[in-house]
Amino acid sequence: MADMAKLAYRPVGLAVSLGSAAIAGRVVGLIWKKLSDEDEIPDALDAQYTVGKVLAAALIQAGVFAIVQVLVNRGGAKVFERLTGSWPGN
């Protein structure tokens, strides 16, 4: 039964992951704008930004993406468990 729950959760997990990436991207943009007063997040290949600024943006992106992904994935698993009675992970 647990294997069936994990299999059934796969499409849900994929949708949740895509949603978390969209949310995280939006949050990173808001944080970057607040910290730097710039609308665009620096790209590694954009020569107008210093290495320090690009690294700062990457650090913010990594932290926000990791935290949002954990929160959204965990929440999705809890909802799945409430609906099916089975935890989708180990």
TrEMBL record:
Pfam families: DUF4235 (PF14019). Keywords: Membrane, Transmembrane, Transmembrane helix. It comes from the Bacteria. The chain crosses the membrane at residues 12-32, 52-72. This is DUF4235 domain-containing protein.
